[in-house]
Specification:
206 residues, mainly alpha, Arc Repressor Mutant, subunit A, Tetracycline Repressor, domain 2, 11 helices, Tet_transcr_reg_TetR-rel_C_sf, TetR_C_Proteobacteria, TetR/AcrR family transcriptional regulator of autoinduction and epiphytic fitness, Homeodomain-like_sf, DNA-binding
């Protein structure tokens, strides 16, 4: 007879099952129509178990968004290097960002989050703040490049927001709001090259 899993491991497995089920329910039905009962049934656990892990649907959704934002920057190397060509560094960062934005879960849950935020300004503020926290690394890179005399700006946050806007104008908002398909590899390459060249033409030091 096989021994039962350790309680901590079983708890972790149940939590993971709840999160997976919640992602599927939110993607399929949206925020308002998804209930903790449906999530529990989909995860194969009791509703009490769901509430033991997450005190509310709001808390569960917030945890999913947190993981979403964290995954959107996983693997990004945002450390500024004074010994490397500026364009090569920025091009690599933009290409990585474009690649990470193509995740299907990312698009679907971002749509759910935006739709849910329309009915809750507080939730929208939290979501925007969380996104800003995850994109702070790019601001830090720009600040370091400016301090090294290789970018012309005294407002790294403003410049970072501009760069993010150039990227998301092609690889986020059209997919979220208009249902356009993710960018192909060739399209990502074109957007990355044009974005970096436009950015450096204005902010790069001669």
């Amino acid at each position: 007879m096989s021994s039962l899993p350790a309680p901590a491991r079983l708890t972790d497995r149940k939590r993971a099952a709840i999160l997976d089920a919640a992602v599927a329910e939110f993607r399929q039905s949206g925020y308002e129509a998804t209930s903790m009962d449906r999530i529990a049934a989909s995860a194969g656990v009791s509703k009490r178990t769901v509430y033991n892990h997450f005190p509310s649907k709001e808390a569960l959704f917030a945890q999913i968004l947190q993981q979403l934002w964290e995954r959107s920057l996983d693997g990004l190397d945002l450390a500024y290097r004074s010994d490397r060509p500026l364009r090569a560094q920025l091009l690599e960062l933009v290409k990585q960002k474009l690649s990470l934005l193509q995740d299907a879960n990312f698009f679907d849950l971002a749509r759910v989050a935006i739709a849910a935020s329309i009915h809750s300004p507080e939730r929208a503020q939290e979501m925007v703040a969380r996104m800003g926290d995850r994109e702070e690394g790019l601001t830090t890179w720009i600040r370091a490049a400016a301090a090294d005399g290789r970018l012309k700006t005294d407002d790294p946050l403003f410049v970072s927001m501009q760069l993010q806007g150039l990227i998301k104008g092609f690889a986020f908002w059209p997919q979220i709001t208009l249902g356009q398909p993710p960018l192909s590899a060739a399209q990502q390459e074109r957007v990355a090259e044009a974005t970096v060249d436009m950015f450096l033409a204005y902010y790069g030091q001669a």
